[in-house]
Amino acid sequence: MVRPTGLERHPDLAELRQTYDRVGSTTPAQIVDGLTFLSGLYLALSPWIVGFNRFSGLAVSNLVVGLSVAALALACASAFGRTYGISWLLPLLGIWTLVSPWVVRGGRTLTPGATPGMPGTPGLPGAGASALTAGTIWNNVVTGIIILLLGAAALAMALAFRNQGRGGERAGGGGGGHRPGNW
Questions:
Q1: What tens digit of pLDDT does each residue of 114-156 get?
Q2: Which ranges of the chain would DSSP assign to H, the alpha helix?
Q3: How many domains in the chain?
Q4: Left (φ > 0), alpha (ψ -120 to 50) or beta: where does 55 sit?
Q5: Nearest CA-CA partner of 46 in 107, 136, 108
Q6: Does the global pTM surpass 0.70?
Q7: For residue 66, what are the domain limits?
């Protein structure tokens, strides 16, 4: 039988994990995690929902980032005490989603002197490309803002509970003050 060593046996560590698990089981945390999960799934599927799967670079970016957001949301929902420290990644992924239409061009570049949307012009395809590009940009901007805001909310909850836990021990002397997870 393997016995825990070092910090794993410390009673405060078990209590800290239980505290963060209580935080993760609150209604606001569950709502944020659920909406973040759905946003990640939508982002992963958006190239086929919105119809810009022809832009392979952006489609792959949205698929990878969307699945990453969904996985982070599931991790935070299932084990908040062990994953709250990586919740800072969600706002960064939201920012990437916001700027990715301009950074990732889907393998298509506009040749010098070419006019976008003009039939027969090298670079972007015909007139339908401008509407497709507008839909692509709007999709990523709106989804990126939503992921950014939900990630900021998850990060704020993690930081607030971490700070309250430290402040409550100092101010209350023995934990008699507000406990994290009690709304």
A1: 444 444 444 444 444 444 578 889 999 999 999 999 999 988 8
A2: 11-24, 27-46, 56-78, 80-83, 89-103, 128-172
A3: 1
A4: beta
A5: 136
A6: no
A7: 17-104+129-165
